[in-house]
Amino acid sequence: MGGARVKKVLLAVVGVLALAGAAVVFVVNARAGDTGTNAVPVVTGQRLTLSPGRLLFRNTAAGPDSGKLASVPLATPDAPRQVGDLRCDRFAVAAGTGVCLAVHPDVLPAVSDVIVLDDKLGVKYKESLPGTPSRARVSPDGKFVYWTLFVTGDSYAAQGFSTRAGVYEVQPGTLVKTIEELPVFVDGARYRAADVNYWGITFAPDGNRFYTTLGSKGKTYLIEGDYQRFFGKSLRDNVECPSLSPDGKRIAFKKKISEGVWRLSVLDLATMRETPLAETRSVDDQALWQDSSTILYGLAKPEGGSDIWSVPADGSGAPRLLVPDGASPAVVS
Amino acid sequence: MYIATSRSSDLAAEVDRKPALRRVSANVVALGMVSLVTDISSEMVTAVLPLYLVLGLGLNPLQFGLLDGLYAGATAVVRLLGGHAADRWGRLKAVAGFGYGLSAVCKLGLLAAGSSVAAIGAVLAADRTGKGLRTAPRDALISLSSDPATLGRSFGVHRAMDTVGAFLGPLVAMAVLWLSLGNYQAVFFTSFCVAAIAVLLLGLFVRDRRSDLEQRARTTVRAALGLLRDAPFRRISIWAALLGLVTIGDSFVYLVLQRRWSVEPQLFPLLPLGTAGVFLLLAVPLGRLADRVGRWAVFLAGHVALGAALLILAGPTGGIWIAVCALALHGAFYAATDGVLMAAAGPMLPAGLRATGMAVIQTGQAVARMASSVLFGLAWTVWDLRPAVFVAAGVLLVAVLAAAVVKPWAVRA
């Protein structure tokens, strides 16, 4: 009996050591897999600013500068990308205000920094919120910053995801941590449900009217909101991640075709007519208006990572690859 | 209190003369260790999965949320299958081991699935199937390895160890991320190694309770159905399901806390840890209390604690410490119900049908809780959050009162 027990303990020790050793070898290899050279030409140590005519984005090319904020001239996007020190998972800019969502690298469950930046990319405000970065935008007047984070199900040890959308008023500096409590009307009736999620906010140039997606019970609605009076109403269904055009009259969005497949489209708010864009691949991003006729977006690559593409906003033409190995485009106008 | 019975454990004679952990059977401690290590592994994945899906693969995690409800339903059926197969073949350890093994292999599956949504969904489903398969045989093993008089303590020790693992999982995942310079694959691989260690521990240190051939021959589907003709067992199953139907889910409790109490969003992820922490602390004391004063009584008291937590949360908001009390009550609810129900049911079931019977109770409860979350969602839509919580608390307390009057625990376990 005693001998058998010793044998078992010995077996256990050997087994545990072997498995722990395998894990250590894997971790060490993963660490060494970081080659230390960038896969694309990168100009490092740059002092990035929000100067007009530049395209800023998250550099996703493999290498030491992966994940950092990068900048290229919008006119010559294939120029070597300049990077600074700032790491952002999502980035957006408007009227001299920038926002950077950066997940803390080794904190679990995920925690993200919401960093509000001035035109020299100096930190004006920083707040840590639970969740994984999904969307970020700045209102056209630069007075509001808003974002969406994915949060793990609020239940312990259970899977399931939801989104949490928040707004920060740059002046006077008020944080609305989540807009889930926005009183909202769907088809004229006050809508309440346990599973209400919002994602993708976009503000009009007046800094009061805004649009967002409400997801609940397997359906999505385009919500038009009034920020001062703080309420919202549904305009139509199946409109996700709205992005308002510079003139405030059209909305670029992703329209769900089937589970996990979205098509970029533009909705005319006056006529409520939808125009599918020339991009036929599935796009899961909040579109960005480069100007009143061009849409930019990140497109996931089948092998992982993403590229930045552009496509005309009127449904004509064809998609054009703007920057390979990039995500979260932002244009300084 | 201490009555030696014919089905006492191998260590029964030594029980109660040794301190703390040593008072439960070595097999229960071994199973607790297996659960602890397995929970480290699974919570590592749970913690890193959203980051991996969103930042690693560029996927939209909401796609997986939709599948979640379907899996929960499938798990209920798998649980029955696992319980019955274990009894039928007289191999509790083998079936539980298969469940643990399947979940372990799934960690490698996540590495192989790449960025395919369908493959990731399938791996997550298989992982849950493993969990469904192993639960009933494992709980049957715990109960068959324990002295029936101290079952509450045995389950308390097991659940406490299980929860320790859940606490450690995210910490281990963080360490791996830090060491591997943010490599998610390294987290999955390490998680697999940890899960494999748990399977190894199960294989080496958990002793099976094999029933004899004659007993196995009696374990048929008909015999399993016959369980429900047994009055005490039928009553406990029905009442457990009924109470499950009026119990609101964790996510709702935390939502109410977040909406009504000005909890800083930085603290949101800590709310479930608060519940788990209290569960961890109270699992053994409440299990022992259940052994002394009656398991069903403690089980009902746990539901009263939940009702009180709901009333506090939906009542007038005040200092944050009141919310902390509500969270503590929520943890006490788990400590007084999760293992205690199994401890109450165990002695009612013949050894050859132990896993089947436990699976029946667990499935009934799980299905009832699914229905309850649908009902509560409906109540929220119609009445808004606060009235819905008040109604839920009221219905829960009425149901507990009814259970107390009907006294299904008359057959003292």
From TrEMBL, chain B:
Keyword hit for Transmembrane: yes
Transmembrane segments: 20-38, 69-86, 98-125, 187-206, 236-255, 267-284, 296-314, 320-345, 366-383, 389-410
Stored PROSITE patterns: MFS (PS50850)
Domain (Major facilitator superfamily (MFS) profile) ranges: 27-411
Keywords: Membrane, Transmembrane, Transmembrane helix
Subcellular localization(s) per the UniProt record: Cell membrane
Membrane topology recorded in Swiss-Prot or TrEMBL: Multi-pass membrane protein
Main localization category: membrane
Domain of life: Bacteria
CDD domains reported in the protein's UniProt record: MFS_MJ1317_like
Keyword check for Transmembrane: yes
Classification via InterPro entries: MFS, MFS_dom, MFS_trans_sf
PANTHER family noted in UniProt: C-METHYLTRANSFERASE, MAJOR FACILITATOR SUPERFAMILY TRANSPORTER
Name this protein carries in UniProt: MFS transporter
